[in-house]
């Protein structure tokens, strides 16, 4: 059994998703968004992200934090902003001995959907299938965070969860 | 009197420089580099940066942290990396009620040298002059951090320090 915390980093909306990987099953334990207001000083927003994630880590005791890396389409300004949020998240992990792992959007899509070119909705549908959710996960950032967690917890676990969801096993 | 902590962010080498602005004088209290090894996991490197800066903040009790922003020449990958280090630094500030301020390299050069197009050595020489240092500040990252601190502490303080250094006043 391992618990993985997925993070879709952003200063305004940081998505998180917590997945338990247990043998051939994956279950969503938690998911949501840490929102911070644009009027707040940036350092306060980072502090809010850090403390919210620290609390979630205390609660769920994940073994690993998996973060979405930025894709190259973004500009330098937004990369700095996403990097800061990512740094605050990683720090919350490091201070509780949780190892961090970074995945590109392509790697995440490939792990979840089998193709690095999968669309947003396809990823959401696959996340719902793999985690046995009754409906598509929302908001987007939470769904993306669950996808990163699945990507990290994946491999054999993902294969088995998919087979179960499709009625091939169990 | 106000103490300003300048930061030149980077994951491998983060420069810091602490300047006391007192009426018409600016004095360098401290300066150096927090180095982290490339083999360390990124979250451990951020933790090292965070704890080193937390200690410096406890020691020098700055009123403000001034950080160099990234310029647009950089690529998205290095922007993410610089952003993470910047986030760890800002968090150390926020947790001790130190406000953060971000300046572009152009604004820093303009504040220190009077021109946004000043070269690296020109900035170093001006930092030495303004802070009354016997020689050019090294390493580069520490000099850059002192320059950001001067930029923030600047305005009237900078003008007066410059006039003193040139023997126009005092």
Describe the structure.
- 2 copies of one chain form a homodimer.
- With 170 residues, chain A is α/β, with parallel strands linked by helices.
- The first copy, chain A, is built from 6 helices and 5 strands.
- In chain A, strand 4, helix 2 and strand 5 form a beta-alpha-beta unit.
- In chain A, helix 1 packs parallel to helix 2.
- The longest helix of chain A is centred in the first third of the chain and has 19 residues.
- The first copy, chain A, is globular and about 50 Å long.
- At the A-B interface, helix 1, helix 2 and strand 5 of A face helix 1, helix 2 and strand 5 of B.
Strand order of the largest sheet of chain A: 3-2-1-4-5
**Distance between termini of chain A?**
18 Å
Major interchain interface with per-chain residue totals: A-B, 35 and 35 residues
The top level CATH class name of chain A: Alpha Beta
Name of the CATH homologous superfamily of chain A: Ribonuclease H-like superfamily/Ribonuclease H
Secondary structure: helix percent of chain A: 40-55%
The CATH architecture classification of chain A is 2-Layer Sandwich
Question: What structural keywords apply?
Answer:
homodimer, alpha/beta, Nucleotidyltransferase, domain 5
């Amino acid at each position: 059994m391992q618990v993985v915390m997925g993070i879709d980093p952003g200063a305004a909306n940081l998505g998180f998703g917590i997945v338990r990987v247990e043998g051939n099953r994956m279950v969503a334990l938690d998911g949501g968004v840490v929102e911070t207001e644009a009027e707040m000083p940036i350092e306060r927003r980072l502090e809010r992200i850090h403390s919210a994630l620290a609390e979630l880590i205390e609660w769920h005791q994940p073994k690993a934090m998996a973060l979405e890396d930025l894709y190259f389409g973004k500009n330098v300004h937004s990369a700095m902003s996403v990097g800061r949020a990512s740094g605050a998240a990683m720090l919350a992990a490091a201070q509780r001995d949780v190892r961090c792992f970074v995945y590109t959007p392509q790697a995440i899509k490939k792990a979840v959907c089998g193709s690095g070119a999968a669309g947003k909705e396809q990823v959401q549908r696959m996340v719902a299938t793999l985690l046995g959710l009754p409906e598509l996960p929302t908001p987007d950032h939470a769904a993306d965070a669950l996808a990163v967690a699945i990507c990290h917890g994946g491999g054999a676990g993902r294969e088995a969860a998919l087979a179960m969801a499709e009625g091939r096993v169990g």
